[in-house]
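assembly run, all chains below
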Amino acid sequence: MSTEVQEIAPKKEGLFSKKNRKLLSDPLNDSNPITVQVLGICSALAITVQVQQAVIMSLSVVFVMIGGNVIISLMRNIIPDRIRIIVQLVVVAALVIIVNEVLKAYLPDISEKLSVFVGLIITNCIIMGRLEAFALANKPGPSFLDAIGNGIGYAWILLAVAFVREIFGSGAFSFPGLGQVKFLPSSWFIKAGDAGMVGFYENNNLMILPPMALVVVGVIIWIQRSKNRALIEEN
Amino acid sequence: MKALHDFLEKKVKPNFVEGGKLSKLWVVYDSLETFAFTPGHTTSKGTHIKDGIDLKRTMFLVILAMIPCLLFGTWNIGHHYFISINAPGATELGSMFWEKLGIGAVKVLPLIAVSYGVGLGIEFLFAGLRKHSINEGFLVSGMLIPLIMPVDVPLWMVAVATAFAVIIGKEVFGGTGMNILNIALTTRAFLFFAYPKQMSGEIWIHEALQNKAAGLAMADGYTGATALGELATTVGRDKGTSEVVSTMGQFAESGMYSIQNCFLGVIPGCVGETSALACLIGAAILIFTGIASWRIIVSFLAGGLAMGALFNVFGANAFMDVSPVHQVVMGGFMFGMVFMATDPVTAAQTAAGKWIYGFLAGFLSIMIRVFNPAYPEGVMMAILFMNVMAPTIDHYVIQSNVKRRMKRMTLQTANA
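ok done. output:
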């Protein structure tokens, strides 16, 4: 045999190839974990009363998601198939405990307000879903991007909902470090004054209750679908 | 429907046709008649539909049935306003009729205008966006909304609540006829949870809060709370305590909230809900014209009476001891029964389903108001809850019918 055998090396794919960039951008809109896949609704309803809580929650979820995706992706070839869920849970739980302890140490106020919902990140369907659907079958690089994409997809919905709810529900805006700033003048509010009732405004209490978060998420889904016809199912 | 038509045709119309006493008002008569009936000159040969009652006419008749509640409620606002400011002779039912009506009209007309303005505006907007003709779905809701509001509720709140109910309660589901929840009740539920301070307490009398904050005293023994608000204070207290006894004194024969007063409706409350009598006149119109389901009305009333009687048997607190008849004439029970529970879109559709739906709604209304002092009026919650349950009820009614007929069929084939 005199013909040369040429080794065909697989073409190396850059970290920011077109395919990988899609991993980042898709979850923001077309396959958003909350509005399209309808995952992680529980925390979206529970901790979106104030923006500051939503910011911290989003950062925590992004951190856990990146950590979980990368670690599981690194371990994907040694995890026995039958116990993969347990392995994933252990990894995620370890990361959540780290987040929880950090929050307790540095942001005790917000940590108290978030209460069990930091612990419940373990059961957040988005995280488990990405581990199962993506990290187990892909290399760490793309897994990392996928985690960031989905994390931000989750975060922007959370922040949008929290923004609306806080403005109308508490008449305020908050951000970690700033605290809550009530920007409406107190003379606006209806109360008994010296010569009868004064003021005309009242905060919308329903916005603070969880059902309204569902309605706000629903309205976002409505707007998104009317803009993006591809998302509308047949019949 | 037909009887009404015959009456108009034989007794009323001759006055308006040429040569009649009121022939100059023919245009007005004609426009109003075609609001309720199809014009008589459309088909000359081969009639196909004898009584084509459409959405517009249905809606119009319901509004007609609400007129007694509206007029009475308007007068009642003025009546209680003058009582609360100690106007001489105001407690007489016949005195100061026009002044009372005037005060009421000043408060009620803006409510109606806001409700219709916002609701129809959104309706037009969506009709434009979705390119379908404007349908009359909001006509009734727009009149119901002002009737279930407290007098002094800020108008912008009514606007926000109406917008919410029409968009989230109706348009999201596809518009008129597709909604799961009654629109007017959705509006009220929104206000109830969003602005609780404006929907409970001493807000039922025009300017009562204003006067109180300015240091003016109300007439003696006049608290401005609704009958149910007063009763809610007795829950969780012993029947013998002096506060409870004095509260219950108002519900005795000569008290302010006696059965007679509650039935007539001369008690504080939402604009149009206080008078059981006016509601029953409305019910008569609706049943007579065949628009509201009499099954729902009868079973709703039966449900309320049954729960009231059941509470009498236990009698654990003063509220439970209130007689069933007294229970059903108080608060919005009658109004909900006649105008809300019978909403043909959100109620159960099957005949058996209507019985179940109405009975449970009435039953729950009384149960919620007695068990939960935080919701002095349970009718809103009960009807909204049964709205959600109605499709399930219908499903099981239809399934059981299918099963029964299957059984009959197999029996027949077995016998053959």
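The beta strands of chain A are 172-175, 179-182, 191-193, 196-198.

Chain A has a mean pLDDT of 84.

not gonna interpret more than that til we talk
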